[in-house]
Amino acid sequence: MEYQLFLGCVIPARLPFIEVSARKIFDRLGIKIKDIKGASCCPDPTGISAVDHTSWLALGARNLSLIEKNGKAISLCSGCVETLKSVNHELKKMPSKEEQINQFLKKIGKRYNGTAIIDHAACILYENLDKIKENITKPLEGFNIACHYGCHYLRPSEIIEWDDPLVPNSLDEIVKALGAESIQYSAKMDCCGNPIGKTDEELANELTLKKLQSITGSRANCMAVVCPACFIQFDLNQYAVNKQFNQNYNIPVFYLTELVALAFGFDDKELGLKFHRTKTQDLLREKGIGINP
């Protein structure tokens, strides 16, 4: 299997360790990953689309035209997947708009044909659960994981066409395959709060607080996410939540590919886990997994 990797903006700019874990596990699984030359911001589904929808379509179509050269691509960002799938969906339904966008792309020697296929990396992992199990050397026993699906990973469901938007199970099944336990909690399907932070940081942190309260009230000892924005909100902004609400949360947050990499025997130094704001080392030492002496 071979896929192009659409990285987007946030991971290479702020969270490169997520890319590291993804490349390591896909290599171990025998899945070839190729970079997309010239790719730009997707662009963000919660930003430019609301301000200038035509520009959003044109930028998305340009990225899709690059993907079309080799057909299939995966992304580690739920927002990127939503944007690229949504642009594809809209242009295929509106030939006149597709023609307009192609007039823009013609000026830079590009053309959108509507043949690109884009999936979330978690979708590929879910489809390869048997291969994942074959490569596990350090089962994540004792990892009680609160899975956070987020908004863009599942919706709009008629466009994403992946998992149940109301009762999803893909992430739960992946973490179970790693030997961990998936913990249910009351706020599981709530938003992390990140998009609201662009206009109201306090309200965004309040939503994050409710998630953290719910997780703390369960048996979970860490979190799993599949979106860089969600990762930032729970990992980096846990400090801001503690400061704003006089709390002392210290819940380790892992991107899904980091958990797979730990189960494959990679250690914290190889994965750059020291760059997490909310430290993971205490949990790793307690469970005897992923610590390089």
List keywords for this structure.
single chain, 293 residues, alpha/beta, Glutathione S-transferase Yfyf (Class Pi), Chain A, domain 2, Rossmann fold, 2 domains, 4-stranded parallel beta sheet, 16 helices, 8 strands, 48% helix, 10% strand, globular
Mind explaining what this structure looks like?
This protein is α/β, with parallel strands linked by helices and 293 residues long. The chain folds into two domains: 2-121, Glutathione S-transferase Yfyf (Class Pi), Chain A, domain 2 (Up-down Bundle), CATH 1.20.1050; 136-287, 3-Layer(aba) Sandwich (Rossmann fold), CATH 3.40.50.11810. Helix content is 48%, strand content 10%. It has 16 helices and eight strands. The chain has a four-stranded parallel sheet, with helices on both faces. A four-stranded parallel sheet has the order 6-5-7-8. It is globular and about 60 Å long. The mean pLDDT is 95.
Provide the CATH topology of the largest domain.
Answer: Rossmann fold
End-to-end gap: 35 Å
Q: Could you state the order of secondary-structure elements as H and E?
A: EHHEHHEHHEHHEHHEHEHHEHHH
Strand content: 5-15%
CATH class group of the largest domain:
Alpha Beta
